[in-house]
Design goal:
The chain is an alpha/beta fold. It has four domains: 3-133, Rossmann fold (3-Layer(aba) Sandwich), CATH 3.40.50.2300; 144-216 and 223-308, P-loop containing nucleotide triphosphate hydrolases (Rossmann fold); 311-384, Helicase, Ruva Protein, domain 3, CATH 1.10.8.60; 406-466, Arc Repressor Mutant, subunit A (Orthogonal Bundle), CATH 1.10.10. The protein has 19 helices and 14 strands. The strands form four sheets. A five-stranded parallel β-sheet has the order 2-1-3-4-5. A five-stranded parallel β-sheet has the order 7-10-13-6-14. Strands 8-9 form a two-stranded antiparallel sheet. Strand 4, helix 4 and strand 5 (98-100) form a beta-alpha-beta unit. Helix 13 crosses helix 15 (355-369) and helix 16 (406-424) packs across helix 17 (429-436). The protein is flat and about 90 Å long.
């Protein structure tokens, strides 16, 4: 139900507007002067403001002028038959949506309200989509590795040199390519992307270079390839390290002379395309092993850019985590989540094998399946397991191990292991139970039976002071 604020000093018109709007399903409020409206607008923001021009004291135009100056003018329709041309022009310049002259029919008023609210809703939706797109394509992070990356993008983007983006899967190589294009001289041209690992080898050639009619059995019409589509812009070749060796020679030829030939064609076409490539492979090793052409490698890697893995960006984790939680709350129309402070240390200790892509997936899972606030026990169990190389055994014996019964030994091992897991999870019983793969109630029983007690904060502080 849309809210409408009416500011009209004529009692009869004001009462009539209230009745008509309530009958039409709106939620109207009515005031008889601009000063009262200004005070009310400081407390609430209606979907629409119906404003008379001639009011006692502050006029409607003066109210619009003040609200616009403070950046809080709602969608506004002026009600008047007395506004001058100067006032009309000024009101439109300040952001008033429309005028309706008195006297007006109910049908005309309702049609104007519907049109205005629909227009406002469309503008809001476009603004939200643009904001979401900007958030999705932003490269976030202020850690030293990211500062270096931002500097490389800033320096490389304005040039027309080919760039090879290197980094592990999930680090955001496509975002870097997008940033390079948007900051380049070609930003108004097309930005075409192709994942060389996602398309079968026999189709990539057709995708890149196109074909003429009759080039093969199903070629009923001619088709331009991606090089032609990207003419005047940028072509992003993702996972270039997975390109078939035979196709690499055709790509090399295009990079050398800037001309492409469609499959089945007898003539070349000139194209003006900046090529940006990306890979998670070690192309230098692939060249040495004969799996990637050396001449193509040097053609692509005019300006190499390394994208750091997430485990080297611990300072950015809190920023990225809160950003993605907010993004998915907005996308899934969920209430904005609070995040408990003890979540962040676990994020920083985790090695993030899937990098930013893994972080995004976890954030979406927490928004859809988790609660509010986000707590450590909602994180996957992998966050509580030890990272690094696996040892050959859990128990380490010294040269002179103590002698005890097997029962006592098993009890002591169980006690020490459970205590270590509880310490690792900051004594979060739910999280520890997930790591141990037991019920939380059973873990409570085991800790009581083994005599395990959570350290008291004051004792910890005293011990740290003594140390």
């Amino acid at each position: 139900m849309s809210s409408v604020m009416i500011v009209e000093d004529d009692n009869k018109i004001r009462a009539n507007l209230l009745f008509q709007l309530r009958e039409a399903g709106y939620a109207p409020t009515a005031l008889d002067n601009a000063e009262a409206a200004l005070a009310r607008l400081g407390e609430e923001q209606p979907d629409l403001l119906l404003l008379d021009v001639r009011l006692p004291g502050m006029s409607g135009i003066e109210l619009v002028r003040q609200l616009a100056g403070e950046g809080r003018l709602p969608t506004t329709i002026i009600l008047s038959g007395e506004a001058s041309i100067t006032e009309t022009v000024e009101a439109l310049r300040l952001g008033v949506h429309d005028f309706i002259e008195k006297p007006f029919s109910r049908e005309r008023l309702m049609q104007m309200l519907r049109n205005t609210l629909e227009h406002t809703a469309l503008r809001r939706e476009v603004a939200e989509l643009r904001s979401e797109l900007a958030g999705e394509t932003a490269i976030l992070g202020n850690s030293p590795p990211m500062q270096k990356l931002h500097e490389l993008i800033t320096r490389a983007a304005p040039t027309d040199a080919r760039i090879l983006i290197r980094g592990e899967s999930g680090t955001g190589k496509e975002l870097v390519a997008d940033a390079l294009h948007r900051s380049s001289q070609r930003h108004e041209g097309p930005f075409i992307k192709i994942n060389c690992a996602a398309i079968p080898t026999h189709l990539i050639e057709d995708e890149l270079f196109g074909h003429v009619r009759g080039a093969f059995t199903d070629a009923r019409t001619s088709k331009a390839g991606l090089f032609e589509e990207a003419d005047g812009g940028t072509l992003f070749l993702d996972e270039i390290g997975d390109m078939d060796f035979a196709l690499q020679s055709r790509l090399l030829r295009v990079l050398e002379d800037g001309r492409v030939r469609r499959l089945g064609d007898s003539k070349d076409r000139a194209v003006d395309v900046r090529v940006i490539a990306a890979t998670h492979h070690d192309l230098e090793t692939a060249v040495q092993q004969g799996e990637f052409r050396e001449d193509l490698y040097f053609r692509l890697a005019h300006l190499p850019i390394e994208v750091p893995p997430l485990r080297q960006r611990g300072e950015d984790l809190q920023l990225l985590f809160t950003h993605f939680i907010d993004v998915f709350c907005h996308r899934h129309r969920a209430r904005r989540r609070q995040i408990e402070d003890d979540v962040y240390p676990l994020l920083e200790r985790y090695p993030w094998p899937g990098n930013v892509r893994e972080l995004r997936n976890i954030c979406e899972r927490l928004v859809v399946f988790g609660g509010d606030p986000v707590t450590t026990d909602q994180l996957p169990s992998s966050f509580f397991s030890e990272s690094g190389s696996q040892e050959t055994g859990l128990v380490r014996f010294g040269s002179n191990p103590p002698s005890m019964s097997l029962r006592d030994f098993k009890t002591q091992c169980e006690k020490e292991y459970i205590e270590s897991i509880l310490q690792r999870t900051s004594w979060n019983v739910a999280a520890a139970a997930r790591v141990l793969d037991i019920q939380r109630t059973y873990l409570h029983q085991k800790t009581a039976a083994l005599g395990l007690r959570r350290p008291q904060p004051e004792l910890v502080e005293v011990a740290e002071g003594v140390a």
